[in-house]
Amino acid sequence: MQQDGFTPLHFTSDDGLALYGRDYGSGNSGRRPIVCLAGLSRNSRDFHQLATWLADQGRRVITLDYRGRGLSARDPNPANYNIGREAQDVVAALRTLGISRAIFIGTSRGGLILHILPAFVPDMIAACILNDVGPVIEVAGLRVIREYLSARLEPKDFTEAARALKATHGVDSPALGDNDWNDMADAIFRETGGRIVSDYDPALVEPLKTMDMDQHLPDLWPQYEALASIPVMIVRGENSKLFSADVAGEMVARHGPQIELIMARGQGHAPILHIPDVLGPVSNFIASH
Q1: Does 177 reside within a domain?
Q2: What is the gyration radius of the CA atoms in the chain, in angstroms?
């Protein structure tokens, strides 16, 4: 049954966990479907505005809740909250839908999943958009993420949630308006038992709490090379602390002619893609593949 422009997707991982996603638009247009992968603690609701717009253009769009996020079941073994396991869950979702090849959009952790997805299904990615993420993650950005995820805000209502998000992230993202902060609050928080809570398993944050951020973090340059044969768009938030301009430039230099880099002006980590100055280039990239 369709809800608010999408059909709920219920599927099971290969290790038996009940997972969830959203299926927007029609699969009858003859054009490649689009698969949207969210950030570390985020979920399918992050992409609702973008997915609705793309569906209105005749595209089919799949958005997913990773295990432990949104309406997907929490994993009793928190060690399974890793990009390898989550990449396998993406494959399970698309096999459930009979999709063998798609255009992918990966925001933050979703982009890390795209770095390793070719190791599981070499031909599944027809083209991809890496939203404020690359093979090298900046420690300063990770520290910011650790700080605000560890806080586990419990606002009294969604209006207060939106204000709190703006207070935390507004300096880096002055391009966002009140409607954007309200949409973000609706995506990040859920009302349950009379409380407004962050919609993810708190166990996700534990690895960040124990990570030694004074040590060199491993990179994914070898995995990035697996994307060399496909068209790639990189979106970098102008004020991003997680994804540096130097890394973005190195990605362009290594990839060759099938790559495009755009700047999300007035946004930090991670840019909202349905903001007009970003949506135009993103939609043109999708249309060309």
Answers
A1: no
A2: 18
CB 24 within 8 A of CB 63: yes
Instruction: Look at residue 228 and tell me if it is in a domain.
Output: yes
CA dihedral 72, 113, 289, 270 (to 10 degrees): 80
Q: What is the pLDDT along the chain (289 residues), one digit of tens a residue?
A: 567 899 999 999 999 999 999 999 976 778 999 999 999 999 999 999 999 999 999 999 999 999 999 999 999 999 999 999 999 999 999 999 999 999 999 999 999 999 999 999 999 999 999 999 999 999 888 888 888 787 777 899 999 999 999 999 999 999 999 999 999 999 999 998 889 999 999 999 888 878 777 777 889 999 999 999 999 999 999 999 999 999 999 999 999 889 999 999 999 999 999 999 999 999 999 999 9
How far is Cα of residue 68 from the mean position of the Cα atoms in its chain? 15
| 197 is a domain residue | no
Is 214 within a domain? no
Residue 68, phi-psi category: left (phi > 0), alpha (psi -120 to 50), beta (remainder) = left
Query: For the chain, what is the domain count?
Result: 1
Instruction: Give CA torsion, residues 77, 82, 88, 89, to 10 deg.
Output: 70
CA distance 21 to 4: 14
Q: Specify whether the CB–CB gap between 67 and 75 falls below 8 A.
A: yes
The CATH number linked to 85 is 3.40.50.1820
Whole-number Å distance between alpha carbons of 228 and 58: 28
Q: Which residue range(s) make up the domain with 245?
A: 6-149+219-287
CA distance 256 to 28: 33
pTM of the model: 0.96
